Amino acid sequence: MPPILTVENLRVHFFLDEGVVRAVDDVSFSVEAGKTLGIVGESGSGKSVIGQSILRIIPSPGRIVNGKILLRIEEENGSSGNLDLVPLAPHGRLVRSIRGRDLTMIFQEPMNSFSPVHTIGSQIMEALRIHSDVSAAEARNRAIEMLGRVGIPSPENRIDGYPHQLSGGMRQRAMIAMALICNPRILIADEPTTALDVTIQAQILELLKELQQEFGMAILFVSHNLGVISEISDDVLVVYFGRVMEHAPVDVLFNEPLHPYTKALLRSVPGIDTPVRSHLATIEGTLPDPYADIVGCPFFGRCTECGGETICRDDPYELTKVADRHYVACPRMCIKT
Amino acid sequence: MVSDSELLLEVTDLKKYFPVQKGVFRKVVGHIKAVDGVSFGIKEGETLGLVGESGCGKTTVGRMIMGAYRPTGGSIWFQPPNGATRVDLAAIEPSKMKPLRRHIQMVFQDPFASLNPRMTVREILAEPLVVNRIARGRDLEDRVRSLIDLVGLKVQHLNRYPHAFSGGQRQRISIARALALYPRLLVADEPTSALDVSVQAQIVNLALEIQEQLGLAYLFISHDLGLIRHISQRIVLMYVGRVVEYAPAQSLFDRPRHPYTEALMSNVPSTRPELVGRKIILKGDPADPMNVPSGCPFHPRCLYAQQLCSQVVPPLLEVDAGHLVACHFSGSLNLTGCDALGCAI
């Protein structure tokens, strides 16, 4: 099955007075319908910017400087092709017709993503009526149905409520309803459970999995939480300093990670194998200077496995295939194999 | 379970109700029962983990111990280190509180908001020593240097301002400041929640090292069950202002006695995809502290709830050595432990 979304060599740079921040630096991946791609990284790794660039909502002064974002378009006559989103104007008619219909997004803090002065129902219906030709009454029925589907009790009353009248978990459900009302093909979820309690987080993850089964959309799930990523993803992208360090199926990534950064990240979370009150593995040092233009491995200098081999510093960054669906960007490892 | 003399701090039946005011005349229309009858004890040199979801009152408990809030009811018995008699911090006069404050210090969640941006690190660390007239001149500088060394930063860092540091380094400065007066108890309120996992690990390691060196006790407040399991010797689990379970860490995770504990453990996302086991998905949201359900506050979400649960508040009773639980049916329920649930924390 051809992927529904393919990102090729994407580079997003932020042009600041102090210099250029390479927030996304040569990132490539693809997602198939009905699958979930997890994007995991620490703060400042550029993981959110990847999601924003697909929707073409990168905040200024960020710009896509290179790469392709190919959305698969299937015509009604059976022919299909790819539409590159990069050359389109970010506020143009075409992007706006795709955004909200084919591509939708849910955010970390649902309170800031809803307008506080409109009812939840009117905001959900607005999305529906912009993208499809339905009457107001039908839109209302569809919105009630969708709110019920995401687990909001008595949706026929809640539809006329305002966002502040809902709890955090319920608001996140309402946002999912708004994102899915047009039956999108790709849902980008940017830390959707980070602000929620664990019991609510478990509810939302379960709901997303159910809805994915039902509607068959692809999910791009951005999170810093390794546990959440391991529960929801089929494939995982580990991002560091705007670059993909490792890309692998979820069970491979968590059981046999290859990149030293992935390994270090996994070791730093207390888990079942960590003796209680023992010393946790840490990653020494800090992220490189955001304005730096690093040719080689950005993890060089913090990596405990390379032993300062100059090849890691000088060899240009490249993501190499090591097995089926498994890619690693570690010069030392790729030379050995 | 523990004789009173061993306890550094003992909290008994602690309560804090916040009034809810409405209208022009600020009429009190109700109370938010943030903390409603909480009891536990902290031994010298141990780590007590206080865990719960948002709104359960865990931060309010920490603030009452610090003296930032005056409790509505209950006592906070503190044992001063010099062999003096125990004092009740909840009832003490403000003038007598001052000399005791140095024994209990706090580290906050947000390292970006808890350091004064206009003070250098040297000034931040020296302030508690100057205010309490403990050191001055050369002696002061030596103390400040030993503090910065204790938390793994360098002497050169002393002249910088907080903005020049990363989140993890700022949290180290906060810890150094809290340790300036050699406290006996450190209240750490979500000290690693704002940090990345690799930095979180550094701070946890630092906390464990310092405890080994200085022998102080921690009240470690967090919503992260995995972290609490790693660091704590004993654990208090709270749900809307009440203690649900209070037990040694091992005992709590091997054999939970409360349905809420079991559900919470099963909901922690695991980094072992093959271990993802039985998830107990709870219905609804955590109870509203403004409008706490009758009886056991957990009963509307509980899988095992019976009629009794909605009528009678379950008392916190000892069911095993040192293992206390507030559930009417803890004896008859056969709940699954953390490892058997497949939760890899």
Structure description:
The complex is a heterodimer of chains A (337) and B (345). Chain A is α/β, with parallel strands linked by helices and 337 residues long. In chain A, 33% of the residues lie in helices and 25% in strands. Chain A has an eight-stranded mixed sheet, sandwiched between helices. In chain A, strands 2-1-4-5 form a four-stranded antiparallel sheet, with helices on one face. The radius of gyration of chain A is 21 Å and the shape is globular. In chain A, 47% of the residues are buried. The mean pLDDT of chain A is 91. The two termini of chain B are 27 Å apart. Chain B has helices at 58-66, 94-101, 121-131, 137-150, 167-179, 197-214, 225-231, 249-254, 259-267, 338-341; strands at residues 7-22, 27-43, 47-51, 73-78, 87-88, 104-107, 185-189, 217-222, 234-239, 242-248, 317-320, 323-325. At the A-B interface, helix 8, helix 9, helix 10 and helix 11 of A face helix 6, helix 7 and helix 9 of B.
What's this entry about, in short?
The complex is a heterodimer of chains A (337) and B (345). Chain A is of the alpha/beta class.
Explain the layout of strands and helices.
The complex is a heterodimer of chains A (337) and B (345).
Chain A: E1 5-16, E2 19-31, E3 36-40, H1 47-55, E4 62-74, E5 80-84, H2 93-98, E6 103-106, H3 110-113, H4 120-131, H5 136-149, H6 155-158, H7 168-180, E7 186-190, H8 198-215, E8 218-223, H9 226-232, E9 235-240, E10 243-249, H10 250-255, H11 260-267, H12 310-314, E11 320-323, E12 326-328, H13 331-336
Parallel strand pairs in A: 3-8, 3-9, 6-7, 7-8
Antiparallel strand pairs in A: 1-2, 1-4, 4-5, 9-10, 10-12, 11-12
Helix pairs in contact in A: 4-5, 4-7, 5-7, 7-8
Chain B: E1 7-22, E2 27-43, E3 47-51, H1 58-66, E4 73-78, E5 87-88, H2 94-101, E6 104-107, H3 121-131, H4 137-150, H5 167-179, E7 185-189, H6 197-214, E8 217-222, H7 225-231, E9 234-239, E10 242-248, H8 249-254, H9 259-267, E11 317-320, E12 323-325, H10 338-341
Parallel strand pairs in B: 3-8, 3-9, 6-7, 7-8
Antiparallel strand pairs in B: 1-2, 1-4, 4-5, 9-10, 10-12, 11-12
Helix pairs in contact in B: 3-4, 5-6
